[in-house]
């Protein structure tokens, strides 16, 4: 049974979108309270997240620089955390291209996707809506077999950490937030 506590999860997203900082915060790394800096992830890095007494989840981050090689890690993956920098709309199109490629991968047709809008402490609601519109999430939802859950986070304030842990724990999460105009 112990193997079941290891959920195969990848954390992906463009360079600098905030993956390492997010996983650091999620794993309860105290440094992030003071807001420590991160360095670009070269290759891959593993983070173990303790969920309950005996349940652990190991998340593998693949640096944005490694995007051409992400596909080598798709075997046996059932959850993907896809991190987009909500404060940097210039990067959204690139993030979208990588995301669409991911969603089209045969090995990931049954994966659950968590779309993380990161760095919300330096973003605005309007930018977040804009980001979702640019990613065409509403249209995507109708065309893809995967379930996409959208979450706003900040590695600085800790926003979104609880729901993220819940998502990691659950096998099926069907929440879909539409980009609203409010
Ligand atoms: N304000 C703010 N800055 C953040 C947040 N998360 C990350 N950053 C900053 O964004 C930069 C990149 O963060 P990383 O977590 O290293 O990004 P990454 O996605 O791991 O990048 P690669 O490993 O190169 O793919 C760093 O300077 C972080 O300090 C956040 O929630 N808020
Ligand atoms: Mg990193």
UniProtKB/TrEMBL annotation:
This is ADP-ribosylation factor-like protein 16. The keyword Phosphoprotein does not apply. GTP binds at residues 13-20, 64. PANTHER family: ADP-RIBOSYLATION FACTOR-LIKE PROTEIN 16 (PTHR46688:SF1). The keyword Nucleotide-binding applies. SMART domains: ARF (SM00177). Gene3D superfamilies: P-loop containing nucleotide triphosphate hydrolases. Mg(2+) binds at residues 20, 41. Keywords: GTP-binding, Magnesium, Metal-binding, Nucleotide-binding. GO terms for biological process: establishment of localization in cell; vesicle-mediated transport. Signal peptide: none annotated. GO terms for molecular function: GTP binding; GTPase activity; metal ion binding. InterPro entries: P-loop_NTPase (IPR027417), Small_GTP-bd (IPR005225), Small_GTPase_ARF/SAR (IPR006689). It comes from Bemisia tabaci (Sweetpotato whitefly).
């Amino acid at each position: 049974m112990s193997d079941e506590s290891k959920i195969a999860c990848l954390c992906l997203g463009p360079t600098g979108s905030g993956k390492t900082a997010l996983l650091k915060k999620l794993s309860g790394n105290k440094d992030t309270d003071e807001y420590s800096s991160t360095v670009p992830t070269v290759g891959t890095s593993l983070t173990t997240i303790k969920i309950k007494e005996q349940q652990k989840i190991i998340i593998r981050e693949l640096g944005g620089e490694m995007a051409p090689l992400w596909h080598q890690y798709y075997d046996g993956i059932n959850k993907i955390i896809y991190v987009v920098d909500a404060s940097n709309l210039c990067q959204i199109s690139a993030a979208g291209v990588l995301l669409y490629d991911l969603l089209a991968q045969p090995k990931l047709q049954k994966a659950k996707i968590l779309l993380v809008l990161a760095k919300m402490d330096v973003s605005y609601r309007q930018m977040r809506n804009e980001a979702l519109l640019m990613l065409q999430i509403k249209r995507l939802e109708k065309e893809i077999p995967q379930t996409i859950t959208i979450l706003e986070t900040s590695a600085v304030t800790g926003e979104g950490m609880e729901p993220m842990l819940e998502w990691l724990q659950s096998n099926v999460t069907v929440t879909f937030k539409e980009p609203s105009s409010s």
